[in-house]
Amino acid sequence: MLNELDQLETQAIGELEAVGDAQALEAWRVKYLGTKGRLKAIMPRIKDVSASEKPAVGKRLNVLKQRLGAAFDEKTAIIERQSGRQAGPMIDVTEPGLLCGQGRRHVITRTIDEITEVFARMGFSVVYGPEIEDEWHNFDALNIPKDHPARDPIDNFYLERPDPASAPARPGGGLMLRSQTSTVQIRTMAKVKPPLKVISVGRVYRPDTHDATHYSMFHQVEGLYVDHNVTMVDLKTTLFQFARAYFGPEAEVRMRPSFFPFTEPSAEVDMKMKVKGQWQWVELGGCGMVDPNVYEAVGYDPEEWTGFAFGLGIERIAMRKYGIADIRWLFENDARFLRQF
Ligand code: DAH
Prior knowledge:
Blueprint: H1 2-18, H2 22-32, H3 38-42, H4 54-82, H5 107-121, E1 125-126, E2 132-134, H6 135-138, E3 175-177, H7 183-191, E4 196-205, E5 217-227, H8 232-247, E6 252-260, E7 263-275, E8 278-290, H9 292-298, E9 306-313, H10 314-322, H11 327-331, H12 335-338
Parallel strand pairs: 1-4
Antiparallel strand pairs: 2-3, 4-5, 5-9, 6-7, 7-8, 8-9
Helix pairs in contact: 1-4, 2-4, 5-10
Bound molecules: 3,4-dihydroxyphenylalanine.
């Protein structure tokens, strides 16, 4: 019986090798593996095998069944491939590969770099200041009196000291997240003797309720120029040149009288820029001539030095320039949005 099974295997495999198409393959399957096939026909004869041989024969039969089944599957795959049908997953080797996602700068970072470059060409160097600030730099030194509404806790992120007993707050020494980059004017003047010409770009924080135009964190660019005989003409010329260089040769600048404690006189700055193809006036921030009280706070002689300062909102610039309707989109970090810029 064992011999017979060996012979059956040799014969079946031999015939399978000769099979060349689906029809022959099906005929082979019926002959060997079918319900009336050779393998099935052998089964009833097991009962005639002697008890001592039975386990070996049973085992051999199982092996034979497996081998023929495996050989059949293999041949099926070969025949399908030959006839153009796919056995495995479709792979089109001529298709172009997937591109790896390429990183890029955030649209705000890009705007900051562009703005910085324009001011650098006008001779401004870049300085930085901390985002955690004390009230002296954020308010007192900027001539903002103790009872000024800009200090209202509702409009500022004041920080609690970890241990007020061991670190008692000096007057004006309470900590907060800076609400404006004008703080860096103070930090720079306190360190550097005039003349100086600097810009500072960075984050500022105010507890605004988030909506399409408000966010509790945004960016400003602050400018400061202190020298002998600096006038409002220099201020307007600087802003005008920035507008032309950044928004194009048709851009314009408008200054509207206003009030800021750290400048006298003060003005609001509007720039005429292209918004969705239309030229429009957009309010960007404030500016003015540095107030003598500010010079005194940092130890500059107000009789000797003159200067201008300005502060512009970066998001306002970027949103108009790139047609972004909602400030929240800038900080949700949705790659589908950010990839567009
Ligand atoms: N710090 C002001 C703000 O956040 C903007 C500003 C106004 C900055 C006038 C200046 C300035 O330097 O001179 O609203």
